[in-house]
Amino acid sequence: MAQKAKNTNATTQRPVAQTSRPSATATGPAGSVSKRNLWQSWMVLPPQTRLRISAAVCAASLVGLFISDGLEYAMPAKEEPATKPSSAPS
User: Fold this and answer.
1) Distance from CA of residue 33 to its chain's centroid?
2) Which of 20, 33, 52, 71 is the most exposed place for a label (fewest CB within 10 A)?
3) Rounded alpha-carbon distances, angstroms, from residue 62 to 74, 76, 87
4) pTM metric for this prediction
5) Which stretches of 22-46 are DSSP H helices?
6) What is the pLDDT of residues 7-18, one digit of tens each?
């Protein structure tokens, strides 16, 4: 009986593509949650989850822009009279 090579698709016998994303069960620095940095933890999340989080951050930013524009329109800044710069003795 012939042994199949590691990392091959059983139906096509072609090598399976490796992902550049660290897996949640990977060993090494990305393996332990306490040893991961922020980027490694972000990359372990599934792409759909990362997309949803990014869209939520963009939506919150957009809402903040509209709120600040509305507040600026409702409560405009008071204009202060222009003052001449004082001339310092030389």
Assistant:
1) 18
2) 20
3) 18, 21, 44
4) 0.52
5) 38-44
6) 655 666 766 666
